[in-house]
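We were asked to recover a plausible sequence for a given structure. The inputs and outputs are reproduced exactly as logged, with field labels preserved.

PROBLEM: sequence recovery
POSITIONS: 86
GIVEN STRUCTURE:
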């Protein structure tokens, strides 16, 4: 899961003796997290400024999400069905 960072098990729920009730969490240092955020923000800004994302892109874009992707897909399917029934 992690690229060399320490990983610790975090308890989810249920029986504490069952290893399946734990999830692995990688411990990343604060400077690494800050650097990751800076790099991501700059990359996304570059991609947006240079129209790299297509209009169908919903991940890594502002004001879009899995929900907007699902709603857009539902709209497209509904429109296609309306055209077939006309």
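RECOVERED SEQUENCE:
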């Amino acid at each position: 899961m992690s690229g060399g960072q320490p990983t610790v098990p975090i308890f989810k729920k249920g029986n504490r003796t069952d290893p399946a009730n734990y999830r692995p969490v990688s411990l990343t240092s604060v400077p690494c997290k800050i650097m990751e955020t800076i790099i991501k923000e700059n990359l996304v800004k570059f991609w947006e400024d240079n129209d790299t994302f297509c209009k169908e892109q919903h991940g890594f874009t502002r004001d879009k999400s899995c929900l907007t992707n699902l709603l857009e897909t539902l709209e497209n399917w509904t429109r296609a069905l309306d055209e077939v029934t006309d």
